[in-house]
Design brief:
Structural class: alpha+beta
CATH architecture: 2-Layer Sandwich
Strand content: 15-25%
Helix content: 25-40%
Largest sheet: 2 strands, antiparallel
CATH class: Alpha Beta
Shape: globular
CATH superfamily: Lrp/AsnC effector binding domain/regulation of amino acid metabolism (RAM) domain
Strand order of the largest sheet: 1-4
Order of helices and strands: EHEEHEH
CATH topology: Alpha-Beta Plaits
Length: about 80
């Protein structure tokens, strides 16, 4: 998300308090905040993003990405764990 600079902390805290939001990161680069959302259904995601997050004052723009599969070092290590 791109947010009003002086409102970054307030907006991040408001997003983090929403059900379904597991983490919010302040980041450098093209965007100001990244929120990790974990919900069971796309409809829930749509309601959360468009109905709740985008309604928070100070959010200028957002982009929603949907993850299909997770790849992490933890997952790779689990593949080789024979215990």
């Amino acid at each position: 998300m791109n947010v009003e600079g002086k409102e970054t902390a307030r907006i991040a805290e408001a997003i983090a308090a929403l059900p379904g939001v597991s983490e919010v990161y302040s980041v450098a680069g093209h965007y100001d905040l990244v929120a990790i959302i974990r919900v069971a259904a796309n409809e829930t995601l749509a309601d959360l993003v468009t109905g709740q997050i985008r309604a928070i004052p100070g959010i200028l723009s957002s982009q929603t990405l949907i993850a299909f599969r997770a790849y992490s070092q933890r997952d790779v290590n689990a593949l080789f764990d024979m215990n």
